[in-house]
Design a protein that fits this description.
The chain is α+β, with helices and mostly antiparallel strands and 415 residues long. It has helices spanning 52-61, 63-72, 74-81, 85-95, 100-110, 239-248, 250-258, 261-268, 284-293, 402-414; strands spanning 4-5, 12-13, 36-42, 48-51, 121-124, 128-134, 138-147, 153-160, 166-168, 176-181, 184-192, 200-210, 213-224, 301-303, 307-312, 317-326, 331-338, 343-345, 349-353, 355-363, 371-381, 385-395. The protein has a five-stranded mixed beta sheet. The chain has a five-stranded mixed beta sheet with strand order 15-22-21-17-19, covered by helices on one side. A four-stranded antiparallel beta sheet has the order 5-7-11-9, with no helix packed on it.
Length: 415
């Protein structure tokens, strides 16, 4: 029989060829249904493929092996041997995809078969609308992966765009889940709204790549705020609303701030609490909260004195005080500590209208005699302003009685 000429590329093909070995064009009508392989392809399991239909079915049933064969170049070598350069190009293009399941799916779809065979991917539901969650709530949801075709549905399911709030219950270390379903496989997803600020909508996506198709399932989660539980602000649902209510009723807000009720409410809603460090005393706590929220400009705080000098003789205890002031008519609040054990702050947290007094003392019994000591009082004032005062203490030696001074040479000789 004479060679068959391709009507598209004009290349000559063997008489028995059904498709052009160069560009894949069908050489005779109805060839797809009778497409045979010049040389059978055999999988490691012993499955033999004599047609492209059987090769596609073999890839679908032996998905994991076929995936490996594609990336090792076995299909490329086989197709080169039988003269199907068009399919060699398809195999190489498929191998360029970094996801092996998507790569094999693309390759299988490029093979010339009479009709689609094998597994077929179905998902229920096709969209996961989770409704409203409160921050801190945890819930499990199901996604059913079904196979409405023949053979075994195989592939992988992965999550993306969900951050840490949704995960696969039985997922692997990489965050994926292997699929192998003759009929169906139930996938459990855990939704964890702890730490998610609200009110806000969160989106994620499930991607399913199998030998029966590729699909995506969008996920939507709506977080609603936990209302404030304590009177007189119970029912408040947002930070801004709480600030407005506090402005109208500052005194009832003081114990709620001091006892941590407001901080715990922020944590329950996944919000960052705006106050860093200890809570200020009294009504100053309300101003501290407003400054942390950015609703009130903090005043500039200065010290009347930033250096104190003492001359002490043990066991003398010397008192002192630091005055913090603000030019603006606002509350001044501060928290203080020291860097020396002999220097003690008597009231670590202080506050007052437009000024605050910080008392401290110097304990000379804790210092070596006959030398000068230096310490610092470290202060954190409104909105994190850092200030410091230096304390210098000259410790004199204790006075000895006259008789002890006379006997000192004699006593030292005995020693």
């Amino acid at each position: 029989m004479p060679p068959t000429l391709c009507s598209r590329c004009r290349h000559a093909n063997p008489p028995e060829a059904v498709f052009c070995h160069f560009d894949g064009t069908e050489l005779r009508a109805g060839g797809s249904a009778r497409a045979g392989l010049p040389q059978e392809f055999v999988f490691a399991s012993g499955r033999r493929c004599r047609t492209f239909d059987e090769l596609v079915q073999g890839c679908q049933y032996e998905w994991e092996e076929a995936r490996d064969l594609l990336f090792r170049g076995a299909f490329t070598g086989y197709l080169t041997k039988i003269g199907r350069q068009d399919l060699v190009r398809a195999a190489k293009e498929a191998r360029a995809n970094p996801d092996p399941d998507i790569a094999l799916h693309s390759f299988v779809n490029a093979l010339p078969v009479n009709q689609a065979q094998g597994p077929r991917l179905e998902l229920e539901p096709r969209r996961l609308v989770l409704g409203t969650f409160r921050s801190g709530e945890t819930r499990d949801v199901r996604l059913v992966v079904s196979n409405s075709g023949k053979g075994i549905l195989q592939g992988k399911l992965t999550l993306s765009d969900g951050g840490k709030w949704v995960r696969l219950v039985d997922g692997d270390a990489g965050g994926g889940l292997a699929l192998k379903a003759p009929r169906e496989q139930v996938v459990a997803l855990r939704v964890d709204a702890r730490g998610l600020p609200g009110p806000k909508a969160y989106l994620a996506r499930v991607t399913v790549v199998t030998n029966g198709g590729v699909a995506e399932v969008p996920i939507r989660l709506d977080i609603v705020g936990v209302p404030f539980p304590r009177p007189p602000f119970q029912g408040v649902g947002s930070q801004r609303e709480l600030a407005e209510r506090m402005k109208a009723q500052p005194k009832p807000a003081v114990p709620l701030l001091a006892h941590g009720d407001v901080a715990r409410w922020f944590a329950a809603n996944g919000w960052t609490y705006p106050v860093q460090g200890p809570t200020a005393r009294g009504v100053a706590a309300v101003q501290q909260f407003f400054e942390g929220m950015g609703l009130s400009k903090p005043p500039t705080v200065t010290l009347d004195e930033d250096e104190f000098r003492y001359v002490c003789q043990p066991p003398e205890v010397a008192p002192g005080q630091i005055v913090l002031r603000a030019a603006a008519k606002k509350w001044v609040y501060a928290h203080a500590d020291t860097d020396m054990p002999w220097l003690r702050v008597l009231e670590p947290s202080v506050s007052g209208p437009q000024q605050a007094v910080l008392p401290f003392e110097v304990d000379s019994s804790l210092m070596d005699e006959g030398r000068v000591h230096e310490g610092h009082i470290l202060i954190v004032a409104n909105a994190g302003q850092r200030l410091s005062a230096r304390v210098i203490v000259d410790i004199r030696r204790s006075q000895e009685p006259f008789t002890r001074r006379l006997l000192r040479p004699f006593l030292s000789g005995l020693l």
